[in-house]
Design goal:
The protein is mainly alpha-helical. 53% of the residues lie in helices and 6% in strands. It has 17 helices and eight strands. It starts with a helix and ends with a strand.
Amino acid sequence: MSIKENLQAVSEVAIKDRNFVNHFLTFRQQRGEKISDPDVMAVAGELLSIAWRKALKKGASLEKYTQACMDRLSSKVADDEFETLLQHMYFNDDARGLFQVSPEFMLFKAGSASSGNTRHVGSVLGNMLLSRPEVTQGKPENLNFLEAELLDELQSFVSDFAPADATEDYLPFMGDVFAEDLSLLCSYPSYMMQNLKAFVGLYNFLYSAQLAMNLRSWRTEPTSKPLYFIMDTERASSERTYVREALSSLIDYVEDLFPVLSALEYLNQPDNKESIRYPLWKHYQQIEALPADESYELKSGLKRFLENYRNARGREPWSEELNTTEDIFKAITATAREIFRQARSSQLTVNRKVVASFETEVARHFIQNRKRGGRVLIMNQDYLLLLTNLAVGSRKKLQYQQLIEEFKRRGVWFDQQSQQALIEFYERVGNLERMSDSGDAVYVRKTI
């Protein structure tokens, strides 16, 4: 269904008893003290399946594959102890050894998410790949005889896959760099295997942060918003306003995520499985682009939805003007925030738990308490090296200021003081190249 078809039905949509978000968000409310990280292997399986357009054949399973490998190799290696050794090396402990051989084996993990947290991360990050070209698979290096045979056997269990694209990008700019970066990792399979957890964690955070900061800008297509980090070894002195205010400002934006996205669910026909889910800014732009008579019809439907939405949530009728598309969207988003800010309400409790989940699960590796300096956003050296390699990409080296711009494309910003600290860090690591004393002649090499 198109945006127009979704909106034509919005006045009749049933307002549910509970608030919910099924799309665009990688996390939900924190339900206990235990912090649950997503299953990185399951997330990677989802991403690679979509990126490569490959999936297991119907009925294929790890158990059937294991037996096929045993049968295949037993006929080639005449050794009584071989079967036990093969089982121990590659198939014991949930096939842990097998998944270290090549990223392709993670296709067995696609669709295996056992927790909601894993499903949400895999679904949202995977959606950013759906509308983009197929990624080329890199060939694993240094495979021994057994591993080459295992990989060859895998091909008989895999077929082409055409995933349905039912949710459009909320952040097209983020989808572009995410696809670029995953493609780069696919060309370095060993490096990918070593950095999967960091890659998923980095993009889970950057996507969530940029989604929060773009949510109020529904009049225009999202862009990378300034979000300032410092290196974990830097001081956050009082004059560094951007650094000191970055986290508190971000949390303020995060408080809008669940309220506004829960209202957006209704614009996308939540009970219609054939409906495509569109971001809020696309709804606004679609209405603005229509002829006056068609626009009037959709705006009238949105006004009736607003009335139903406020009534179902026990709010007084909207008292301000609703003449323009902008008036109506302001009213809908303001209503959503109003509902979740009611004192002593269950909605307020839920939203506080959602914000807590962002801080303790999604963002915890990027937040540091500097005591007198307050809490700041940090980029530790492991994440920084990964980000640097992704930003340099397929090139051998990148001019330093271009590298800073590549960071910004991904939602990572550094002030002038941090930029100087970065140069010193790259000099220590040994991947900085100075062509002259000029700042324009400083290049950074990737470390892959």
